[in-house]
Amino acid sequence: xxxxxxxxxxxxxxxxxxxxxxxxxxxxxxxxxxxxxxxxxxxxxxxxxxxxxxxxxxxxxxxxxxxxxxxxxxxxxxxxxxxxxxxxxxxxxxxxxxxxxxxxxxxxxxxxxxxxxxxxxxxxxxxxxxxxxxxxxxxxxxxxxxxxxxxxxxxxxxxxxxxxxxxxxxxxxxxxxxxxxxxxxxxxxxxxxxxxxxxxxxxxxxxxxxxxxxxxxxxxxxxxxxxxxxxxxxxxxxxxxxxxxxxxxxxxxxxxxxxxxxxxxxxxxxxxxxxxxxxxxxxxxxxxxxxxxxxxxxxxxxxxxxxxxxxxxxxxxxxxxxxxxxxxxxxxxxxxxxxxxxxxxxxxxxxxxxxxxxxxxxxxxxxxxxxxxxxxxxxxxxxxxxxxxxxxxxxxxxxxxxxxxxxxxxxxxxxxxxxxxxxxxxxxxxxxxxxxxxxxxxxxxxxxxxxxxxx
Length: 455
Fold this sequence. Notes:
The chain contains 18 helices and 14 strands. The chain is an alpha/beta fold. Strands 3, 4, 5, 6, 7, 8, 9, 10, 12 and 14 form a ten-stranded mixed β-sheet that branches. A two-stranded antiparallel sheet has the order 1-2. The protein has a two-stranded antiparallel ribbon with strand order 11-13. The longest helix has 26 residues, at about 285-310.
């Protein structure tokens, strides 16, 4: 398997191709960028920040106050401080159910590939296919962390909701660009064959090298093994196919414009994957450009879906995608949350997550081949944010970081270390100082977490 070298602070380590595409997920609670306002001065020593935070904290068992916190937001990004802990996944499931029933939300979006999202969406709406097989086949490589009993429970709930409420369907979308499955190419070429059959051979030729053969893992491992010049030629071909489809006029009849819009979006998703892999991952500048492009595209895909469908969306991703402030501006210049705030303003609300101690699944960077295994970590020191948050309540709770007491705001505005674990562990920067109030609008804290149940 080809690997690339990524500098991380003063150290260098090897990273898998798919791990690289998800590497930005390692960010999260982050320091203020250069030029940002100075941190709020610390609260007086006599003030107990845990007591001040408790004044506005709500137990996670009562989600009614959440309605006021998110207001009329169209997209709510809910983060996670590890990529594979049960409590983060089950909390998102509960929050989505609540938002569907009480606030009219209708889409669950995940940091998964666009083509994967189409397959899961078809199952939750119609029951077409085998959801367990879809998860097994699609959630591979670093996306393997999504193939859990917790997500299967969510998808089954969505399917049952749609069976019971055909007039209030919920949907699923993937907003990522790590892989474009055959179903995506079929959607585009089938549309072309209906409205412009004479162009079908040209589209097939433009897609000839990009269309995957074999499984997701095989494709993701092999794509970046191609020479950079070849990857760039493939990206150009995919972009030419997109431009050609955009120039076509929609066919006639009812729904023609809608069908054209979705076909173009699918072609754009194919082009996005090609463009991502056309970056030069052998250089720090290329990595930074790829990570910037990825977060921008994930935001654009989410916004397109929201505006096209009119749905209110719960967006599930790592803290390092839903937040506003980047950990490492040189390698990860800007996060999806910042792009979403640009596009949606107050219609985007960011919810971060933190934890005190517990377990998670991750690839072991200290073992040959970086196998996926369970890690268990104890509490951080008294200077950490989690140390204080653990004293707020013994059970999970959430609070609005925008509406707290002055003393609590001072504490939230002071950089403090906390854990944010991505697809691999340990990793330099897993524990970083960050200002919670600069990164998120809301925060959910779990004193203890446990590893998700991988399938």
